[in-house]
Design a protein that fits this description.
Number of helices: 5
Number of strands: 0
Strand content: under 5%
Radius of gyration: 13 Å
Helix content: 55-70%
Order of helices and strands: HHHHH
Shape: globular
Length: 92
């Protein structure tokens, strides 16, 4: 039996699934996991499309949204807007 590597981006195929995934990571994850999750979402939607909408190059996006990257907050906000998301604050 042949197996393939699991890629979460393959399962982020609707706005609802993307929102659920990102909200779960925001609740449970640390800053690195959140950046990587946003990268998975960008990959699922299409890096070329996200690059066009943010005005960034694909290479810059891959670098900014990779494991261990420390992107600027403005980059995160641009990508979130491009993927149709936003940050909301709720009281704990």
């Amino acid at each position: 039996m042949e197996t393939s590597k699991f890629d979460i981006a393959d399962y982020l195929d609707s706005s609802e699934m993307i929102a659920e995934y990102l909200n779960a990571v925001l609740e449970e994850g640390d800053d690195t996991e959140i950046v990587v999750a946003i990268g998975h979402i960008a990959k699922a939607i299409g890096m070329t499309k996200i690059a066009e909408e943010t005005g960034m190059s694909r290479t810059s996006l891959y670098k900014a949204l990779s494991d261990g990257a420390k992107p600027q907050f403005s980059t995160i906000m641009k990508v979130l807007k491009a993927v149709g998301g936003q940050i909301r604050i709720s009281p704990i």
